Amino acid sequence: MVVKDVMRDVQTVSDKATFKEALTKMICERTNSLVIVNDEGKFAGVVNARTLIHRTIPSYLGDDATAAHFANEEIFREEVAKIANEPISKIMDEDVQTIKENESLIKAAIIVASGNQIRIPVLDEESKPIGMLTRTELKQVIGVFLGIEGCFCE
Q: CA 26, CA 36: separation in Å to the nearest integer?
């Protein structure tokens, strides 16, 4: 078994897309992450729901839950409106490990286990996204190895 045997479909958006366009795609496709591609369809980065949500918090509040008590819905609405047309290329994470479709699942497990990355874009030989590997697929593979019934690849 290699990456291509278990990867899921990937959802992509252009690096020219706006915050609003990326969020719209996430909502419509029911996904929490998107792979960003350049004009040639090559991997440029990723964005996830956590990053988008974090971007809607006014910078003066930071991550301070206590300060948030003094904020209100209007402040939240204003911040969301300010970033609606911000290019996703300014928000995306470019420092992401990727994997090729014929690489081993143990390599994917190491990527996930060794850092904060929980989704791994799968690229072809031309650096174009062709899939996504997540903790869910790795968990299911481990389940298959343990003989747990109902795993996706049985």
A: 12
